[in-house]
Write a structure and sequence with these properties.
three-stranded parallel sheet; single chain; four-stranded mixed sheet; alpha/beta
Length: about 180
């Protein structure tokens, strides 16, 4: 056996170009912060009834997040297949990856790539609000250590954070529409 000093580097793919449907999230596995890649594929439903499939993520939570996109943001996904994969074959229970899941889904649906230097760490509520997550400074520090340029967090997590300690930009947001505006213009 050999120690893996930085599992985040293993879970993030090395790519030469920006691709749609991929978003990076800062999650916690036990007490350890890790960055993981969330991959989404949205396509037209070929057989009438759209499929919802998730590997490494709770399918019921995926359905809830898709409902938020439809109701709060106006994205029509009811006639489209949605496939979600958490890279590395791990199972994620941390709600802090919600925002990355939504960003990856919209990126795939619109075929718009997201900068691989952006990271996300926030839960998304039923009204489309961006909710705070625990131990945010550990998540930010991990993203900073791996050279990310920006991390999107809930504005409610911003209190007490010394932003000057980090080399990345901390973007505090309160609604899902605000994130979409910043990412996709």
């Amino acid at each position: 056996m050999r120690e893996v000093s930085n599992p985040s580097e293993i879970l993030l793919s090395q790519r030469d170009e920006e691709l749609s449907g991929i978003a990076i999230s800062a999650m916690l596995e036990g007490a350890r912060p890790m960055l993981i890649e969330t991959q989404a594929l949205v396509s037209s439903a070929a057989y009438g009834t759209p499929q919802r499939s998730a590997t490494g993520f709770d399918t019921k939570r995926l359905n809830m997040l898709l409902a938020v996109l439809e109701k709060r943001c106006g994205f029509r996904l009811s006639t489209q297949d949605v496939f979600l994969n958490i890279a590395g074959g791990i199972r994620v229970e941390d709600p802090a990856i919600d925002l990355a899941v939504l960003i990856a889904i919209i990126s795939s649906q619109q075929d718009l790539p997201i900068s691989s230097k952006n990271c996300f760490a926030a839960e998304v509520g039923l009204s489309g609000e961006i909710r705070a997550v625990n131990r945010i400074e550990q998540r930010i520090a991990e993203a900073d250590k791996l050279g990310f340029e920006a991390i999107y967090i809930s504005k409610y997590n911003l209190k007490g954070i010394d932003q000057s300690k980090y080399n990345l930009e901390i973007k505090a947001v309160s609604k899902i529409e605000e994130v979409f505006g910043l990412i996709f213009g």
